[in-house]
Design goal:
globular, mainly beta, 3 domains, 6-stranded antiparallel beta barrel
C-alpha cells in the first residue's frame, strides 16, 4: 500500500533484458535508508519487489505482465523514475490509498502552463472512465493527484510547482505515456453495487433494500 506521495527521483542505472521479463537496476538514496530485500517499492506507480540492493542502488524484476500493463518496458538507461516506499501504519496519509496496481497506460493529451503551475490533461478509455470522479483522486505515474476537470474521454489535473520539481511529471508533455491507477474506493463501490441479491442487515435489522446509488444516498454515503 502506498500514498502517491513520491519520496525521490531515482535513475535507471541498467536494464537486463531476458527472454520475456526485465531486471532493472535503479540508483537511489532516500528510499534505501531502511530498505530490505523483499520490500515493496512503487516505481512510476507500479508495485515491485526489491531483489538485491547496495548502498547506492537496488534491483527489481519486471514480469512480462507488468511490462504489458505499464510504461516500464519503454524506459531507458538514465531515465528518471518516481519512487515511493510502502506505507507504514504510523505514516501520515498525505495523498490517498494507492495499491501500485496500474489500471492502464494513458496518454497526456493536453498541457497548459498557468504561472508556475500547469494543467495536464490525460486521455482515458471507456473502461476506466466510470472510476474517475470530479474532485476525486487518481494516481498518475505513482503521483497522487486531484481531478480538476472531467470530460468524456479525458480528465485534467493541476500540477503545483512542488509536484513538477520532485516528480517526473514536470518534464512530461503532450504525447507522453503515463501509468494510471484509479481510486481503490471506486473499485470496492463497484463490487458492492454489483452484489445486490439477497437480504441485508442495516443497523442490525434485516433489510431487503437493494444496494445501489439510491441506497447509498439515503444513508448519507453520497450526496
Amino acid at each position: 500500500m502506498f500514498t502517491g506521495i513520491v519520496e525521490e527521483l531515482g535513475k535507471i542505472r541498467s536494464i537486463q533484458v531476458k527472454s520475456q521479463d526485465v531486471t532493472l537496476e535503479i540508483q537511489a538514496t532516500d528510499v534505501l535508508s531502511d530498505a530490505k530485500v523483499g520490500d515493496s517499492i512503487a516505481i512510476d506507480g507500479a508495485c515491485l519487489t526489491i531483489r538485491f540492493l547496495t548502498s547506492e542502488a537496488f534491483t527489481v524484476d519486471v514480469s512480462a505482465e507488468t511490462l504489458r500493463k505499464t510504461t516500464l518496458g519503454e524506459r531507458k538507461v538514465g531515465d528518471p523514475v518516481n519512487l515511493e516506499r510502502s506505507l507504514r501504519l504510523s505514516d501520515r496519509l498525505g495523498g490517498h490509498l494507492v495499491l501500485g496496481h496500474v489500471d492502464e497506460v494513458a496518454t497526456i493529451c493536453g498541457w497548459k502552463d498557468e504561472g508556475d503551475a500547469s494543467l495536464m490533461q490525460v486521455t482515458i478509455s471507456s473502461a476506466t472512465r466510470p472510476y474517475i470522479a470530479y474532485k476525486g483522486s487518481v494516481t498518475v505515474d505513482g503521483v497522487s493527484l486531484t481531478v480538476s476537470n472531467l470530460h468524456a474521454d479525458a480528465f485534467e489535473v493541476a500540477l503545483i510547482p512542488h509536484t513538477k520539481d520532485v516528480t517526473t511529471l514536470g518534464a512530461k508533455r503532450t504525447g507522453a505515456k503515463v501509468n494510471l491507477e484509479v481510486d481503490i474506493i471506486a473499485r470496492y463501490l463497484e463490487t458492492l453495487l454489483k452484489n445486490t441479491e439477497g437480504k441485508r442487515e442495516w443497523n442490525n435489522q434485516p433489510s431487503t433494500e437493494t444496494l445501489n446509488l439510491n441506497f447509498l444516498s439515503k444513508h448519507g454515503y453520497i450526496e
